[in-house]
Amino acid sequence: MEYIFITSFLLGIAYFLYMNRVTIFLFFFLCLAIYFMPLFFGFVNEPIGRFVEQRAIVEPLYIFAIFLFILCVIFDLLLKVIKSNFERRSKVTTHKNVTENHNNLCVFTFIVCFSFAMQLIDGGSALFSAVKADVLEASSRWTILSVISSMLAICYSLQVKTDKNNKLINILLVASLISLIFNIYIGHRSNSAILFLAVSYMYLDNKSIKSILKLYRYRLIAFLFLGLFFFVYKYLYIAIKLGDWDLVFSKLTSEGFFSQVFMYSEPFVTQGIFNGVLRENFITECTNMIFSPFLVIPGTEMLIDYSSCKYNTQLQNFLYTSVDYGVGSNLWAEFYSLSGFLSLYSMTIFYFFIVLLTALILGNINSPLLKSVIFILIAYMCFYANRKDLFLLLGIFKRVIYTALIVYFFSELIRFVKSVGR
Length: 422
Prior knowledge:
Elements: H1 2-19, H2 24-35, E1 43-48, E2 51-56, H3 59-85, H4 98-123, H5 132-138, H6 141-159, H7 166-185, H8 190-204, H9 209-215, H10 217-233, H11 237-242, H12 245-253, H13 257-263, H14 266-280, H15 311-319, H16 331-339, H17 341-362, H18 368-382, H19 390-421
Antiparallel strand pairs: 1-2
């Protein structure tokens, strides 16, 4: 099955190269290839106590991965047909309302700076601890607002850079980058990785693959090195926070360090969860998915006991009883755990339709703020979903959307106050 999987991947690459256009399903295909990377090597890592154990990959996991690659091709063709026949092409690609952009930039700047300051004040010295548990305990809602507002601010600023607000944009970009770099330093890498993917897709969407390979080959090399950074930093950040640069240098120059980083990276553990679920035929007793509609209402976590049917908790109690830390989750594993292969394949097809709908919405809007939201959601949907369950993923979506709504509300309030004052 390993050779069939590799063949399906190569055929998928050949298809997208032939189509010669960056689309959301090429982006999804590459994200899936990263997270299903262990299947190229024939093993995954499953948690055992404080260690991991290499396990052979079960055949249904190979079959499902091949199914995902096939879906990427089918839905890419479907997207092409829909666009050519039904989609209204927007002639304007950037928003020209300079006043509105200025208001949004002012609000973003205030939120990013204020939330970052509050993160530092609220978290205190614990944020600089080399113990991950201390950092997580010190992280608060200010941390979430600081990171998400910074992500949105960067996406937004890069879209309106041609407007007459360049000085304010530069201030906002610097403030947002400081916030994100600090959060990388203390150990929160994932949000910056998502922003990296969102911005990459924002710039490359609908561009010719051949022109990208020809004109942007040095940027692609930089892209690969930056991607490598997110893999490597996980194994260095504790030594960096301790200020032990000799240990950092020793790790970087040790024999087999980069192969160890690769072989024990997150995809190998994430697919280890899916592999274990398939092997042990784990079916949940209940699911948080039924509470998904309530997620749009702020504060519902105080009224509804979401923890009782948390997928990660059920999974860990069944498969990983010897593990005393959170092992993460896996969207595809959760789909299987609903009722087996029927729910796995049907929910996956439904999920692909959601991605398709998102691409169609993106193609028919002009607002840079709304586009920023969608680009970030796309990165979460196509990449980060591989290591989250659906309920947690929707919770992240809510945070991104609510942050954008806060920016929109105060921007409109500023516009209203200015109009009254005239």
